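Hi R.,

Here's the input for the nicotinamide-adenine-dinucleotide complex you asked about:
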Amino acid sequence: MKKIKVALFGHGFLGKWHAEKAKGLEESELVLIVEPQFQNHEDLKRRYPETEIVTSWQGHESKFEAALIVTPTSFHFQLCHELIAIGKHIFCEKPVTSTYSEALKLSRELKPGQVFQVGHSERCHKVWEDVRLKKFFKSSELLIEVSRQSAFKARATDVDVVQDLMIHDIDLMLWLMEEKPKSLSSLGFKIRTQTWDHVKTQFEFSPQKRVEIHVGRNAACEERYWKLTSKDGQVFIDLLRNEIRFSDNKTETTSVESYEKRDHLLLEQKSFYKSILSNIPPMVSLMDGVRAVYLVEESLNSLISSGPKKLDFRE
Ligand SMILES: NC(=O)c1ccc[n+]([C@@H]2O[C@H](COP(=O)([O-])OP(=O)(O)OC[C@H]3O[C@@H](n4cnc5c(N)ncnc54)[C@H](O)[C@@H]3O)[C@@H](O)[C@H]2O)c1
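And here is the predicted structure with nicotinamide-adenine-dinucleotide in place:
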């Protein structure tokens, strides 16, 4: 099998796991790690003896075909912009960029045949393949309550909790609902950092169809769930415990089932390499990333103006 020559940008908290996958997969060859913090280089050279370790990628362009961007979000735009211009395939962690206008700019620069996948890894939960969920998402009367709460970790505090955590559920919402919300309204607090640490945003699809996403990074109790309520009953999906509970109004029965826990980064990378090798669309496209960043931005605008926002996806 042809191996894709891969460069990893950013060997930090998440980058180290991406490096392991790129090294271990039969579809890829990890040829380059770009990490500006040179004090880590000796350790990296020991762990990846076959891989070149550098502080800057300039001068190494010809050595790789695909890039994994796992740097802090503020670097995503400039790196992607430069790598698109020289024809590289790109996997970029979420959020694809810090602002909506940057994300739109990348979408206009991307050339036909160039694969661009965004790291919205929460799509990899096996539970989303459960066909019983379809009728809930299609229901015209539906309330979805989502919560993603983590303890304070003093990590990723350069971005607010909407960019860091809510974006996972925003992407899931757009993907699972297969339609776009008409308006949103947010409420939030700055508790531990200079940015928003605790935010609740309500997305309205129609007066009878709403999604409320509540995220926090100051939680007493960690939780990560989706709760769907319709006339048919209720579904509770626990993304931390990999569990799904149904309550069916017609049969008046309830059930609890576990679902298989999967390696999301591995699935994402396999899908990325398959798109390059087979010339098929990636599992999360650049436009998916653009839409998620748009809703992040409008959710933050609603916090600043303390009012609802009408949505207009300019694409
Ligand atoms: N999908 C997920 O669930 C998930 C989870 C965590 C983080 N992330 C995303 O991954 C990205 C990285 O997060 P992290 O927590 O690993 O950050 P981190 O700060 O731990 O690591 C980032 C690394 O990138 C390096 N770096 C900075 N500028 C660079 C450049 N120009 N070129 C190459 N390397 C550079 C830094 O030195 C650092 O080692 C963020 O965009 C974050 O949102 C996604």
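One thing worth noting: Residues 286-305 form the longest helix (20 residues).

Cheers,
M.
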